[in-house]
Structure formats: structure tokens, C-alpha cells
Amino acid sequence: MPITYTSGEQVEVYRFSLPVTIGVPLVALIVQAYVPKYFPSFAVYVDLPLLVTIFFAMARRNPVAGLFTGAIIGLVQDMIGSREIGIYGIAKTVVGYGASSLGVKLDVENAGARLLVTLGFYLVHSAVYFAVARGLVNSTLHWNWGPGMLAGLVNSFLGVILYFILDRFKQRT
Amino acid sequence: MESFLGRYRNLIILVGVLFLQVLGLAVQVKTGANEEKDTRLIRVWALGAITPFERALVWVQNSTGNVWHNYFYLRGVRAENRQLKEQIEQMRLQQVRLSEDAAQARRLQTLLSFKEQFISKTVAAQVIGTSGSDLSRIVTIDKGENAGIRRDMAVITADGIVGKVLFVSPNLAQVLLISDQSSGVGAILDKSRLQGVLRGTANGEVVLERVMSDEQVQPGDIVLTSGGDQIFPKGLPVGTVTKVGSGKDLFLSIRIKPAANLSRLEEVLVLTEKQERESVADDHVRIRAADILAQRLPSVPDKPATAVTPPAVAEGASPGPVGGNTAAKPASTAAGNAAAVKSASGNTPAKSATVQVQPGKTVQSGKTAVQPSTQNSAQTSTAQKPKPLSKSSTEAKPEGAQSQPPAQPSIVEQKPAPVAAQPDTPPPSQDNSPQ
Q1: pLDDT at position A67
Q2: Arch. (CATH architecture) of B52-75+114-278
Q3: pLDDT tens string B154-165
Q4: Cβ contact (<8 Å) for B28 and A140?
Q5: Cβ-Cβ contacts under 8 Å, B9 against chain A
Q6: Is some CB atom of chain B closer than 8 A to the CB atom of A140?
């Protein structure tokens, strides 16, 4: 795995064990499906599968791995929902590719950078989802900046905490 | 060429993956969003992978909750129990009143040969998960095809309707909530009988559409199912109107608060069988609210063995507590007693024994003499009416009654002693006063 450089600073590439690669996204999907049963707002403001996609994509710094990670997580998320399969898949594929491409060029190890990156990718994810749902599936969604930004901020702060927890599972290549 | 592929390899893969997904979406859109068969297998796999963990979580949570609530956290249970008992009594009275109304409605429907849908079988299921997305409002329940659940079956709770079954696997089912924007339910406003279509919105609200803007709809109006969707039987509670505004194209925009708490679903009922038949008037014995009330009134102590009651009379009627403070004088013959028992059964001959009583006045009707109490006129007049007894009492024949032990306590009109002769009869408590 090549080591890339940004502004002369070495950027590390990480890998994960197979149980973590499968288990973490699975746990994220289960929590995402289970918690709204008791806290319905959780489904509105939190997207754990998205955070996991961003984390793995940024840590691996491999666009192909990132886009496949996003595609698989998104498609499974579609499968446990009632909508057409592929809407989350496309959105998370784009996010996975983008996050890993950004990870190659930028050091996103500190909390501030992670916060901003997560907020940005949350908005990208929402925009792609919105475009696909309205353009391809003809769904009647309405874009709402207020709740959208609030959800973005909630995900960003949650993401920073989650990334620090998941950092423990990183393995240097 | 090779350098081009190598240089743009990542981008080409991205486009390829996106293209495949768009193609898949296009196929789904073309074949119809609700065509389950195309994606059924994939969804079964995904649910099969996720739901065992959810089941385990639900089990752990229920077990922990049961231990805590059943063995440790019992604070206020006695007071709650007392409140619930009082509530049950109130509801029993209300139920009896309502059953009278329902019986009347059935008789009218019989006259008009209306057809009704009856819920004949339900399956209880537990909610174990959701879609995890606010754009797809579904819940997953722990029963599936093996429990008799099929697609498009109605799902309800005791409070109101919840949704319909969207997808079924052998041991699981997904329920599309009425708040999902792809759902639609035939609904009717209870007061004005205006019909409309209930739909969910993208932000999870429930609105009633297709009600003309010149109609009068008020916040607080009750919404019921109309039965027009062929999924939900008619008359199930849907919710309450919370806001009425002008909508598009001469229609009102009516916002509904669902009767069932869709965000906190724990257990639901799936209507697995409905029957459509003409309603039949129910001529069976019905208990009236007054009778329930009378049962709760303090009983008059039994007369000593030297009482004037002849054995034939005493055994023909149940020696239970007296309804109200009114006691009928004993019938003088077995035939009279038979008439009294018959009238107590609530069947047609009972009318002959019905008397109108003024408080403080002794009235005789046929062979049954009644001496009402002066304490409570409502209870008195209640006690004069024919009393439907418990089934055992109703079916007891006077001829055979002598050889049988007394039936279970029930309302008795033939109590031999009038209240005036029982100085130690306790007055009716406050709780027992008619509402």
C-alpha cells in the first residue's frame, strides 16, 4: 500500500481486521435500526452507517475501497428500509469515494478537521440522496436547511467521538 | 489506452458502481415501487442478517425490564391497583351502555341488510426494529408467514390503526406505517361523515386529503377508517384532527394526530382474518349498566331459617345479593316464581314483570310484589326492571331448581324480606352510587 504525502507530512494508511471490517458496519446498522424504536428522533438526526463509511474511507485512504465500503453499507441500509434499493447505496458510494480521496490529500486525524469533514460529507450525502430520490425515484422530498444543518452538526459531533473510539481498531500497514 | 485506464482507474470504477446502482434503481422504478418480488430475496437476506441481533436486544431488554418491574420497582403498585380497579368498574358500566347502543345499531343494520366486516382473527406481534431512516417509516415485527401473516394485512393497536404489512418473510414482517409518504388509508370523519384519504408526509406527519375546502372540519374531530381501502375494516380509530388549513386544488389540508403512538410501538395486532357478513341482531341476554351497578350494591343479609320464604321459592331464585335496597316480596307459588325467573332472564316474557315504581310505594305486578326502598329512586326503579341473571341462573328451570344447589350469586328480585325489615342493612357506599 503506497504511503502518500501531504505538504511534506507523512500520512499513514491503515487497515482493519476482518471482524472489525464486518462487525463495525453491522453494529452501526443494527443500532440505527433498533434505537429509533425508542427514540424516533435518532433516525432523523443520526446516520451511524454514514459515519462508519466516512471513518473507514478516510482511514484506508483508498478510493476504491472507500467507494465499495460506502456502496455495501448503503445498499444494506436500503434493503432494511422500504424504499427502492440503491438510493442510500449511491449516496454512500459517492461519500466513500470522496472521503477516501480527501483522506489521501489531507490529514484528517485531528478533531477539528474531522468535524468539518463529517459536516461536509453529511451535506453531500443528503444532497445526493435528495437528488436521486427526486430525480430517479420521483419521491416527494422537500429540502429543509434548518433540520438538515442541525442533523449535520449532530452527526459531526457524534462522528468525532465515534472516530476516537474506532481509532483503537486501526492497524498500521 | 493503458495509461488512461491506469490514471483514471478509481474514477472509472466509481462511475461503473454508480451506473450499476442507477440501473438497478431504474429497473425497480419501472417494475413498480411496490413490486416485492424483484427485491424480495435480497431483503430477506438483509433482514435475516440484522434481525437476530435485534431480537436478542429486545429479549435482553424485556428480561431486564421484567426483573426490575416485577421484583424491585413496585412503588405505588397498590395505589395503582386500586385506581385500575375503579377504572375497570367505570369501564364495565360504560361497556354495557355501549353494548346497548351497538345492539341497537346491529338491529338497524339487519333491517337494512347492511354488510359488515368483522375482525375474526388477529396475531399479536412484537416490534423489534425500524428502518433506521426518517424517510422510510416502517417497523419490523417478529412474526411472519409462519404465523399466517400476509402482505397487505392491516396492523393495529388497541388505540388505533398502525399500518399495513409491506413485506413478509417466514419469521418476520415489515409494516408500512400510516405516516409513511407512500401509504394511503381510506378514512372518514366521525362527526360529519366526510370521506378522505389518509396519507403520510415526508416529515412523518399524517394528513387527510381529498376533503373539499367548503366542508366544515374542526380540530378535535375524530377520524375513523372508512373501509374503502379493503385493508382496514370500517370504524377503526385513526386519529384526531389537529389542524385544518386550505390546501391545494380546492381541498382542505387536514393534519391528523394518529390515535396509535407510532413512535413508541411495542406490540401490535395483525388482522389475519376478516369476515364480511350481514349483521344479525343479537337477541341474547344483555346486561345493563344498572344491573352491573346493582350487583355492586351492598347485599341484604339472608333471612334466618324461620323466614317466611317457602323453600320452593327460595331455591328457584338465586340467594345472592339484592340489587339495590329494594327487595321483592316472595312469589307465593312455584308458577309465580317461574315467571319471575323467566322475567329475570331478560327474555320476552320479562316485560310482563316490569313495573313502574314510585319511591316509597308498594306496587304489585302480576304475581310479583315489589316494595321499593325510599333511599334511592334510581336504584329502586332499576331493581324493578327484569334482571338478567348470570347464565346459570338464567337457564335454571323452576321445576328442577329444588333439587339443585343455589346458583351463583346474582341479582335477585325475590328476596323475601323488604329492606325495612332489616335494620342493620348498610347504606350504599358512595362508590356505588350511579354515575
Answers
A1: 94
A2: Beta Barrel (2.40)
A3: 999 888 999 999
A4: no
A5: 64
A6: yes
- B25 and A77 within 8 Å at the Cβ level: the answer is no
Q: Where are the domains of chain B?
A: 52-75+114-278, 289-432
User: Does the pLDDT value for residue B283 go beyond 60?
Assistant: no
Asked if the Cβ–Cβ distance from A141 to B135 is below 8 Å, we say yes
| B270 phi and psi angles, rounded to 5 deg | -100, 125
Is A99 part of a structural domain of the chain?
Answer: yes
What pLDDT shows up at residue A2?
42
Which chain B residue lies closest to A63 (C-alpha atoms)?
B10
Of B21, B127, B140, the CB nearest to A89: B21
The conformation of residue B150, written as its DSSP 8-state character, comes to -
Question: Helix, strand, or coil here: B122?
Answer: strand
User: Which residue range(s) make up the domain with A9?
Assistant: 4-168
Question: For chain A, how many structural domains are there in total?
Answer: 1
Residue B191 has pLDDT above 90, yes or no: no
Question: What is the SS3 assignment for B70-89?
Answer: HHHCCCCHHHHHHHHHHHHH
Tens digit of each residue's pLDDT (9 = 90 or more) over A126-170: 999 999 988 888 777 777 888 889 999 999 999 999 999 999 988
Q: Bigger pLDDT: A154 or B40?
A: A154
Predicted model pTM:
0.63
Interface contact A132, partner B, CB < 8 A? yes
- Model confidence pLDDT, tens digit, residues A84-111: 899 999 999 999 999 999 888 877 788 8
Inspect the interface and report whether the beta carbons of B131 and A43 lie closer than 8 Å.
Answer: yes
Report CB contact under 8 Å: B21, A34.
no
Are A79 and B42 a contacting pair at CB < 8 A?
yes
CATH code assigned at A74: 1.10.1760
The pLDDT tens digits of the residues spanning B296-350 come to: 665 555 555 544 444 444 444 443 333 334 333 443 434 444 444 344 443 433 3
Q: Specify whether the backbone of B156 is left (phi greater than 0), alpha (psi in -120 to 50) or beta.
A: beta
Whether chain B has a CB inside 8 Å of the CB on A150: the answer is no
Q: Is A44 on the interface with B (CB under 8 A)?
A: yes
Q: What ipTM was assigned to the predicted interfaces of this complex? A: 0.87
Judge whether A106 and A12 are in contact, CB under 8 Å: no
Q: CA-CA distance, A138 to B2, in Å (whole number)?
A: 39
| Residue A87 within a domain | yes
Q: Is B180 within 8 Å of chain A by CB?
A: yes
Q: Is residue A173 part of a domain?
A: no
In contact, B342 and B354? CB cutoff 8 Å = no
Question: B228: number of CA atoms within 13 Å, CB side?
Answer: 12
Does any CB of chain B come closer than 8 Å to the CB of residue A5?
no
C-alpha closest to that of A24 among A56, A47, A46: A56
- A137 touching chain B per CB within 8 A: yes
Q: Please determine, for residue A26, whether its predicted confidence score (pLDDT) is greater than 80.
A: yes
Inter-chain CB proximity B14 and A93 less than 8 Å: yes
User: Does A37 sit within 8 Å of B25, measured CB to CB?
Assistant: no
